[in-house]
Predict the structure of tRNA-2-methylthio-N(6)-dimethylallyladenosine synthase.
Amino acid sequence: MNEEQRLQAGLATEDAPSGKTTEKDYSKYFESVYSAPSLKDAKKRGKKEVEYHDNFQIEQRFKGMGQGRKFYIRTYGCQMNEHDTEVMAGIFMALGYEATDTVKDADVILLNTCAIRENAENKVFGELGHLKPLKLERPDLLIGVCGCMSQEESVVNKILKTYDQVDMIFGTHNIHRLPHILHEAYMSKEMVIEVWSKEGDVIENLPKVRHGKIKAWVNIMYGCDKFCTYCIVPYTRGKERSRRPEDIIQEVRQLAAEGYKEITLLGQNVNAYGKDFDDITYRLGDLMDDLRKIDIPRIRFTTSHPRDFDDHLIEVLAKGGNLVDHIHLPVQSGSSDMLKIMARKYTRESYLELVNKIRTAIPTASLTTDIIVGFPNETDEQFEETMSLYREVGFDMAFTYIYSAREGTPAAKMQDNVPMEVKKERLQRLNKLVNDMSAEAMKPYKGQVVKVLVEGESKKNPDVLAGYTEKSKLVNFRAPRSVIGEIVEVRIKEAKTWSLDGEFIGVVKEEKVMS
Ligand code: SAH
Ligand code: SF4
Ligand code: F3S
């Protein structure tokens, strides 16, 4: 391992230069401390094998860095970002920092950002604006921007130009470098920028402070190689790379031993799991088959790509047990022509065929999806195909979005003849259908008994508890607070569009997970 690799793995041997230094001094010391992102480099997919690092440790010189200091992380975007926040919180705690949920009390504020649509980015710029007075009041406050937006050069340039309240920017490939980045930020007057536009490695053994004790996220793979023409993720998250099965199984076993009740396996495209292994043949179906033997009540995964959803996985999911019968299967559009331009690599017909296979093997399966409306040049007829596919599949729920052009992606260069009013009108029509069909899907629950993993108080009424069924339906009911964290039975009294109200029956006795 050379010095650069050691540094990347968080194993620096030399001390960084101390005292106030300039950008130039640092670039002499170690090139990547001031490395700016490049979408062009991020797009490359070379032959280089994935490197696995499992030797993360906090260097002696950084221990105690956080003594008497508090950190605050605001997270935008998907579950992968939420989970990265848990890792960064783990690193902060290992450095001796204390967590706070009040911005005003924080000594370090991180915005863990999302780049998926323009409005996600605008929220972050808005928040940076709000933080400026706080920084002026307390110049020793550190403000950092990390996550997917940091991987875009246009964002970094905009921050450099307009948001001098920011002290550090780092990307999705180097969150394990947080101790170094903080150190640099404390020592330097300049903005610290460390963003690596590489394909990506897998770093194990990172500390984590999970949000709650009931449900846990577990990364099974990172990155995406699908390059759907509208999407920024393959540029911000690097290439598809899978964690080794033994590391995942070990983590899930540990979580089961700690009493967690539900695991969600995470990846941008979990169905590609294992494709990158060249020493073993082991795919998502194999992983699920191993995980279902672990004594933990519920296992989910997100997000599925229809293209890599193979028969073996369906066969394993059909075994049920702790593998829940809810599958989120983004379709994006019901028009084969649109799907082609989006480079989704499946057609309306093949998607319907897959749905059919899933429903045949798992008749109780609940399906949800993601849809983009107003993709460049989408015609009314093509949009109607999305509406008809939605009805035909009978989805329980959908996340629906108006297409947002992302700089650097192929779709951003396409001419677009669809006016924004038309896109908005289509979204409204689709959302009406989504609501109506969700209400329809809820109706049969009236009078039924469902199993609910109780997560805590309902957001609307602290006297009421709330949790989710295996099919991810929100259930509200009254019960003693002692059942929080348990799986309970509830008789449904009322079915609403997005939730069910019921009557508590009792705690479900421990069920042996595997038959
Ligand atoms: N990897 C997942 C999706 C991750 S992004 C998959 O392929 O299924 C979550 C959702 O955001 C996508 O499914 C898509 O519906 C939406 N999305 C992605 N890029 C978008 C864009 N440029 N404009 C609007 N919506 C977008
Ligand atoms: Fe984006 Fe497509 Fe990858 Fe999903 S599969 S993250 S939509 S490029
Ligand atoms: Fe957003 Fe990055 Fe997730 S762009 S959706 S935070 S992978």
In short: The pocket of FE3-S4 cluster (ligand 3) is lined by residues 77-78, 80-81, 114-116, 147-148, 232-233, 236-237 (CB under 6 Å).
